[in-house]
Each structure stands twice: as structure tokens, then as C-alpha cells.
Amino acid sequence: MNKKGKFPLRSAAALLAALLTVTLALGGCGFIEITYDHGSDTGTGEDSGTAATDAPWTVPAPTTTAIPPDKVSYPDRRAEAEAKLEALPDVELSVSDLIIANATSTAALIEPEEGDLLNAARSLRTEAACERYGISMTVLSVEESAMLGEFTAAEKSGTYYADFAVIPAYAAALFYNSGIVLNLGQLPVFEAPEGAGTVGMSCYFYCGSAVYDPDSLWALYFNRTLAGAEISESLYRAALSEAGLAWGDVLTAAASVTLPEGAYAAVSGTRSSATFAADAVCAGADVEFVSNGAGTVPTVNFDEQKLAEAGDVISRLAALLYLPAGEDAADPEAVFADGGALVRLGPLSDMRTFYDKKTEWGLLPLPHTGSVSENVTLGSESRPVMFFSGNGRPELCGAAITALDAASGAWLGDAYAAAAFENYLRDNNSYLTLHAILDGSVKFDFSYLYSGVASRLAGTTYNAARGQLTGGASLSEAVSRARVAANRELARLFG
Predict the structure, then answer these.
(1) Residue 465, domain extent
(2) Which of 218, 285, 329, 476 is most buried when burial is the number of CB atoms within 10 A of its CB?
(3) 234 in the same domain as 361
């Protein structure tokens, strides 16, 4: 276990001033000129199937014109978080030293590390939250397996270990089953939100702004060189139009591009997670496998049309997608980085891998299937979530998570986009599409957290989608066939 030092406190005035002047590290690719044109569109829009007048701005051809930093402006929504933080009720705390255990497999969200795109913003957010209630925070960086053992030992002995823990979503069931995760609704001051962490009248895992991690959000990368200028522009234009980027746009582009020998139309994930493409399709189709909310029993209860649309795209994508097999199979990430694939589905963290490679890539939101009216992205099963431990201090924890939640918000996405622009992005349009991704709706299904609790849940949800991608039964068929047994199990466990 590595124990880090306490988070320093500053004066309120200094913190609020800092929130308005986040300083971002320079480097990488330098500055890229961002061009907005709110005038008329002179293009035809035929390539994307969207009328030119539907585009909110004219998309310029990709450029890499270096300009002075003072001519680049970013959106500023930090004042919203500042006002929300100040509006919180005053709380008198008997103790103020909070300890948070942060799994090493997740981003260091509370005390960020050097190189984190949100290092400055997260640090200022945490300091402002601490200042609001006079709290100090100590972060323990620890392996999740060791963390579980430490929490369990403390629970059995009645001793204190930590108040909160930040873990990857895929490990949530392991901690839930151990009995050390308590209902966030028990915390004073804090209002537990509905969402993936909610079960009936309880919320066991917090998935809100305080654990916001853009790196874990999925997007579509594409090779601008292989696509060519015309198709590249048509994809950007579709992505930035009111209608948004559809899978039809992407699949049509893939069919019209002549690929060099040995190149693939599409890749996804890594050797061990290439089938996550199916998850991304389901997110873009706005599929919610499980309905859950306060006072209800979680139920596999999906929209038939959206599920069918997702299944259709999965079947078409399966014919194009490189799915590695065997120890000697090429890693899809490396294939794309080396220019061997037209498109790639993957998390935003991939930008750090691709930025200095030879491939001239662009960034797009996850395509939709037609049933959505906004950009949708996938919050992967590795995204961080937070839980309250059985030996934590409720009053202190309620105040801390309330302040962290309030001090976070959309401005963190703005800071992330600015840092990505300065360090990683290759062209103007990717800056615009990155904002579209960050401002979109994040799909994060109940099954990611609780499939390890309910044994039948995974096969009825995302594993069913991944199964179709690799030649199994259709998504609609697999889900329909398994839902009765899955719902029976959910009712038994959470009813």
C-alpha cells in the first residue's frame, strides 16, 4: 500500500480564483487553429446523406496551422460549479480528516498524477471541495485485491481503514458481495442520484461527476489518409450536424474506400477486448438492457426496436471487424496506430497512444442507429465508481462527496478538451467532435456493476451482444430467450 500525503488546503479566495484560471501543460503537437464559421454552407452534404443546411457550422478542411495561444478560446463553465459549491448548506463537522482508498487500476481522481490530462482541473476541484467544509483528504493508492483484503479485515475487527474507495466498475460486484459496501442514501447531506448504482431504494455505487473520467469514454477514430479528404470531410460534417453521425455514414464510407493489401476496415479494443465493439454499438443505439430506479426492482426490460437496430449494425460490423485470435494475433490498437485500419472503436485514452504515430487520425462520436436525438458515448466497464465503506464516518463522507460532486461538472470536460487540443489532437475538426463527445449522454448499464452479483445478467445483456459479433445467436434472440430467468434472479436478489 502506498500512502500519499494529505491534500493541501488554500484560502477560499485563492481557490475560486484558481478555478477560473486553470493552467494547462503545453507540448505534444502544439496549437491547432480552430475555425468557426456560422455563415451559410456552400457544400452539398450528399456524402453523409444530410442536407448541408443541417450543419450548425461549416467544417473546414483539416489544417495544422500554428497560432499564438492567446488566439485560442475555450468554453468556460467553471462558474456553474463554483456557484453550486457555494450554494451548499453549511455543515459543522466533528472530524475533518477523510481517507480515500484509490485502486491503482483506476485514474487517480482525487489526487491526480503528473501526465493526467485533468491534473490541474482535478486538483483545483478537490481543493475547492475541501475548502468548502474544512476537510483534508488523504489518498491511499492500493491494488484492488489488496484493498478488498484491507477493508474486509477492518470490517471484521471493527477497526478503521478508509471512508471511501474508488474502484473500476468491473470490480464492483466483488466488493458488493463482500458485504463492506453500504447504502449511500445513509449519508447525511448527500442526495444519492439514480443511475446504474441504484438498487431499489438503495444506491451502492456513486457514478457521478466526482468520478468523471473522460479517458474511459468511447469514440470512433478514423484514418484520414485512408479515407481521403472528401470522405473525411463528409464524416466530420455528419458528426457535427444536428442529425449526428449514423452507422450508415460509417459503413457507407468503409464500403467506398479502397484499402491497401493487408489493411482492415475496422478494429476495436485490444487483443483481449476486441468484442467491446458490440458494447459501443449498443450504446450508440441507446439500448438500456436493465430498467432500474428508486423503489423498483431491476428488470431486463429493453426497447425492441433499439435492440433490433443494434443487432443489425452488429451483424454488418462483424463482416468488417478484425477480431484477433491466437497468441500471435496482431493487437488492434497497434494495427490502427501503424495505419493498418480505416476506423477504430476505442476509449479516449487511446489519444495518448496515437498522437505521435504516423497515422493521420481524426476523432468522431460513437455512431448512432437512428433512434437517438443526441450524441451518445459508452462509459466502459473500467470506468471508476466510488463506494462508502462500513467503517467510514457518515457525516464526514456525506459532506465530502456532496462537495466533490458540486465542484465537478461540465467544466472538467472543457479542461480535458483543451488539454487534448494542445497535446494530442491532429486537426481542427477533432477538437469540435471531442466537445460533442464530452457533452453527449453517457451510457453506463446496470449490468456492468452487478453482473457479478446476478450470474445470469451478463449473458442476457452485453455478453449477448458480444456473442452475436462473434457468430452467435442474434442479439434480440439471445436477450429474449434469457430475460425470464434473469428477471427471476434479479427479483430474488434485489426484490
Answers:
(1) 220-378+454-494
(2) 285
(3) yes
